[in-house]
Amino acid sequence: MNNLIPELSFKDIEAGDVNAVNALNAALHDHGFFSIVEHGLSTSVLDSCYDSSKKFFELDVNIKKKYHNPKLKGARGYTPIGIETAVGEKIADQKEFWHHGPVTDDSFDASIPENIYIEELPEFNTSFDNLFIELNSIGLRVLKVIAKSLDLPIDYFVKWAEKGNSLLRPIHYPPVHDLSNIHRARAHEDINLITLLVGAEEGGLEVLNKNNEWIKVKPSSNAIVCNIGDMMQLVTEKKLKSTTHRVVQYSDQECKSRYSIPFFLHPSPSTNLKSIFNDNDKGVLADDFLNERLKAIKLY
Asked: Is the pLDDT assigned to residue 267 strictly greater than 90?
């Protein structure tokens, strides 16, 4: 059992480098986490999003709450601290976040909501639209690599996700002064197909391995951390593992705000999530699967 989260050149993976591909496949089957460099993400786009994100979370709480609409089930806009709660937990996570999706047109499922415009930060939406486009493109490339590792047609999952209900989630974890609760985000698994995370180099992200040991994720500053979600675990009948992970405040860490921006790659709501191995599997609609999980984490 490898207790390291491998950091791999995505350029090498796509080129079919044997060592890189073997390391990727091992990570997919061991703990479902890996990180990639040489992925092509624009640093200027990412920097502008972090700047916009920090400006938003620094706004007065009453301004931020203008953009919280419980009727949207957390799908768009602002979610304050103390709402999202990991499955099986009674204590809410110590985080606030924003949800930003694709710029939709008639080719998208009509149930995918439009983004919310922040009046106080006119540059916010433009920055996150640009980041969404770039991470969505990288995410589809990762799906091709995963399909290849499963001996599927290379565009198998791309068809599900290219017009998907995907989300960017800029997150602010406020400083943790009381170390009796070090959990900024309690142990959980992601709902979606795959997650791409930028900003993990700040520290605190941990992955649970098969021996129930927590592995610290320590990517370099330009790496994107990738992990498998529950939807991918479902359709691969757990051949690919949706791994438990958490975010904690270490006692030797400086007590300060932590920011990150995960990108959750989702299929379109009408996608039937069925086993890639069993033709007789009836599957479940992606929208139904998502809504059940959103209830479980108390987003509505």
From this structure: yes
